[in-house]
Design a protein that fits this description.
Distance between the termini: 72 Å
GO molecular function: hydrolase activity; ribonuclease T2 activity; RNA binding
Keywords: Disulfide bond, Endonuclease, Hydrolase, Lyase, Nuclease, Signal
Structural class: alpha+beta
CATH class: Alpha Beta
Number of helices: 9
Family: Belongs to the RNase T2 family.
CATH architecture: Alpha-Beta Complex
Number of strands: 9
CATH topology: Ribonuclease Rh, Chain A
CATH superfamily: Ribonuclease T2-like
Strand content: 5-15%
Pfam families: Ribonuclease_T2
Organism: Iris pallida (Sweet iris)
Shape: globular
Helix content: 25-40%
């Protein structure tokens, strides 16, 4: 009987050990979330903007959905996304299986196409497998984590657009003499001070080879401006303005590639 007892108890303890190990790894996953795990509510929003001139100078392939391929260069900041963040420098992501539905934002499409275009020919990865539109990526990865402040897809995109136009960084900088050009460089500190004066909070700038690539303005959950969080933990390709950008930065422009090499059927597709 003693040998029988040992044989029975050993598999049970093995199962318990496996469950313990699974529980440990599940609870200690990184900041990239899973819809299978409940994530705590975020602390603030970051409205992330892109400077097309920096991205589009690197365009080598043209396609109809790429904003860099439009006939006239984009000389204004475009939207990257509205991101829920944590104060510790991490962020939630992919918080539910709510898939992007273009019909739900159909009334916003003309504005999204102009001010929230993709700057690439590549489809972006989606939370639960496959590839899709840039907007689908932003909604599924970030928009689904905006609850309880933002409840649905339409509200996510419309709120991002509202903030974009209310705190129009392009107009703020143009009004202070900071224009899209390949001829001049501007003091980083002056750009930051100009935005802080107009918005009421310190932005976060990200640069690539001395050119502004991304700019974030941050908000409390009631959408009042706040200073952007700076920590040693960075998200995607971002870091704080001082470490990422030199003392003098540029806002470059570019000569758009045209669609001569794209077949007529693709060229007829509506801009995304």
């Amino acid at each position: 009987m003693a040998r029988f007892d040992v044989v029975v108890k050993w598999p049970l303890s093995s199962v318990s050990l496996l469950l313990l190990v699974f529980s440990f790894f599940s609870s200690s996953r990184g900041s990239v979330g899973s819809s299978l795990l409940e994530q705590r509510e975020f602390d603030y929003f970051a409205l992330a903007l892109q400077w097309p001139g920096t991205f589009c100078q690197r365009t080598h392939h043209c396609c109809s959905q790429n904003g860099c391929c439009r006939p006239d260069p984009l000389t204004w900041f475009t939207i990257h996304g509205l991101w829920p963040n944590y104060d510790d420098g991490s962020w939630p992501s992919c918080c539910s299986r709510s898939e992007f539905d273009p019909k739900k934002v159909s009334s916003l499409l003309p504005v999204l196409e102009k001010y929230w275009p993709t700057l690439s020919c590549s489809s972006t990865s989606l939370c639960h497998g496959g590839k899709g539109l840039f907007w689908a990526h932003e909604w599924e990865k970030h928009g689904t984590c905006s609850k309880p402040i933002i409840q649905d897809e339409y509200s996510y995109f419309s709120k991002a657009l509202d903030l974009y136009f209310k705190y129009n960084i392009t107009d703020i900088l143009n009004g202070a003499g900071y224009l899209a050009t390949n001829a001049d460089k501007y003091p980083l500190g002056d750009i930051v001070a100009t935005i802080k004066k107009a918005v009421g909070a310190t932005p976060l700038l990200v640069c690539k080879k001395g050119s502004v690539q991304e700019l974030q303005i941050c908000f409390y959950k009631d959408f009042k401006p706040r200073d952007c969080h700076v920590s040693s933990t960075t998200r995607e390709d971002t870091s704080n303005s001082r470490n990422s950008c030199p003392r003098y930065v540029s806002l470059p422009t570019y000569a758009p590639l045209m669609l001569e090499d794209v077949n007529s059927a693709e060229a007829a597709v509506t801009w995304f």
